[in-house]
Design a protein that fits this description.
The relative contact order is 0.07. The protein has 9 helices and no strands. It folds into 2 domains: 105 residues, no CATH class; 66 residues, no CATH class. The protein has 180 residues and is mainly α. Helices cover 52% and strands 0% of the residues. The termini are far apart.
Length: 180
C-alpha cells in the first residue's frame, strides 16, 4: 500500500520544515515563477503538493537546468519557432510545462495503445469491418451503415440478420420468413 504524504515527508526529509527548505532551495528564479501568497507562503501548502513540486523541480533541474531550456525543449519537440508561443509558455508554471513536455514526448515516442473496445461513441460500430479493411471498432458513416445493413439482409443466418434493426436506420426491411 502506498504511504501517506506525511509518512513520505517524514521518511525522505524528516519534517515538513525541511521539505519546505528543500523546495525553497530549488525554487529560484531560473526554475520557479514566484506566485506564492505573501501572507501564507509555503507553510500552508499540503504535503502532497510540496512533494510533487519538489519532484518536478528536481527533475527539471537535473534534465534541463532551467525553465528557459525546458521551454526550448517544448518548442523543439513541437517544431514551433514563433516568439508568441514561447512568450505564452513563459507565463506557465514549471509543473505545467513539465507535464506538457511529458505528454508531447508520449505522443512522439508512441504512447500506450488505445483499446477500441473501451471507447464509447454514439452511432453504429462495425464489428465485422475486417472484410472491408476497417479496424475492429472503427466507426462507420451512414454509407457504411447502409452497406452493413444490406449485407446483413443478405445473410442466411437470421440471428445475424436481426443483430441490426434496419427500421431504426431508415432502410427497407424484407419480410421475415417464419419457419413452422
Amino acid at each position: 500500500m502506498k504511504a501517506s504524504p506525511l509518512a513520505t515527508v517524514n521518511d525522505r526529509f524528516g519534517s515538513k520544515e525541511k521539505l519546505i527548505e528543500a523546495v525553497r532551495e530549488l525554487a529560484n528564479d531560473e526554475l520557479f515563477l514566484d506566485r506564492l501568497n505573501e501572507d501564507k507562503g509555503l507553510d500552508r501548502v499540503s504535503n502532497k503538493k510540496l512533494l510533487h513540486l519538489h519532484s518536478v523541480l528536481t527533475e527539471v533541474k537535473d534534465r534541463f537546468g532551467s525553465r528557459a531550456k525546458l521551454i526550448d525543449a517544448i518548442c523543439t519537440a513541437e517544431n514551433r519557432k514563433d516568439q508568441g508561443y514561447r512568450d505564452r509558455l513563459e507565463k506557465w508554471p514549471t509543473p505545467r510545462l513539465w507535464d506538457w513536455l511529458k505528454s508531447i514526448e508520449g505522443l512522439i515516442l508512441g504512447g500506450p495503445a488505445r483499446d477500441p473496445g473501451r471507447l464509447r461513441r454514439s452511432g453504429f460500430w462495425d464489428f465485422s469491418g475486417a472484410r472491408r479493411g476497417l479496424a475492429y471498432g472503427e466507426p462507420l458513416g451512414i454509407v457504411g451503415v447502409r452497406a452493413h445493413v444490406a449485407h446483413m439482409q443478405e445473410t442466411v443466418d437470421t440471428s445475424a440478420r436481426d443483430a441490426v434493426d434496419p427500421e431504426l436506420l431508415g432502410a427497407r426491411r424484407r419480410p421475415r420468413v417464419v419457419a413452422s
